[in-house]
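W.,

You were right to be curious about this one. When I first looked at the sequence I had no strong expectations either way, so I just let the prediction run and decided to look at it fresh. Below is the sequence, 325 residues in total, followed by the output.
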Amino acid sequence: MAWVSISAVAPLFEGQEGVQSVYGPRSPQAEAILTLSNLVFVSGAVIFVLVMGLLAWAILSRRRHPPFRKTTFIALGGFVFPAVTLGALMVYTVLVSLRISTPPGDEALQIHVTGHMWWWEVHYLGPNGERIETANELRLPVDRPVSISVTTKDVIHSFWIPSLAGKIDMIPGHVNRVAFTPTETGITRGQCAEYCGEQHAKMAFYVVVKPADRFDDWLSTQARPAPAPITEQYQAGRAAFISEGCGSCHTVRGLAGANGEIGPDLTHVGGRLSIGAGWLNGSVGNLAGWIASSQHLKPGNRMPSFDRLDGPTLRALAAWLESLE
């Protein structure tokens, strides 16, 4: 009966499979969570309608022909019915939880994510076991298990990719893990699901699922240092990056004096889909706007607004950062 009811309400959610939606599952784990959610929703609705119907029937007909003896009604409605329905839901929930929390095997891709106020630090293990850092974006291979370990440097965050896995808390000093297997290529979006401060709504990130060979190429690129500037404008932008002290907060591998750890690693920032933790699309114009007005665009983040830069310097700095793919 429940499965028939699920089919009946499914059209209500058509068109909701957006870039950040639980109604467009792209992994077996997300599919299991959606099925469980639908079952609980439909079961709750059926129980509510049934109870309200019995209540109305009892009120309208009690003087003419009482439906049950009092003890029978209490035994069936107050014990047997809730015990059977809630017990069945609990057993199914436990089975689903065990299935989606089973640790993946050694072939799983290992990723470490650390939450900050308000950005995401991401680490991969490279082909030779080296640690590769990036930020505010996940790239994953399709049809390969992924195990993500999460923690945080400051307040409690919650790591959530609705179309791939359930929510998991990011707790200072503690490591939690979530595992799933992406089954479709494409772009989806994740979001912090725990209120973490005034910019909680702008604590997001994109997830790009690629074919395995293209993911390997991307990871090899991420392991390399930043490319050398090939134009005079790029050279001017790199010089401005050093002279303005950006390297004291950000790392650009291969650039002397740029090894800061307060902000995101910018070695390949030009290849990312967004800046500001999923807040703005990655483009030279948005980079320039972010550099000049970061406190206006995302108040309270730890990067000051560099509104003192003149136009040519600002454009050169943004153009150089965009070239770091």
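Here's what jumped out at me. Confidence is low (pLDDT under 50) at residues 1-15. And, maybe more interesting for your project: The two ends are 53 Å apart (CA to CA).

Coffee later to discuss?

I.
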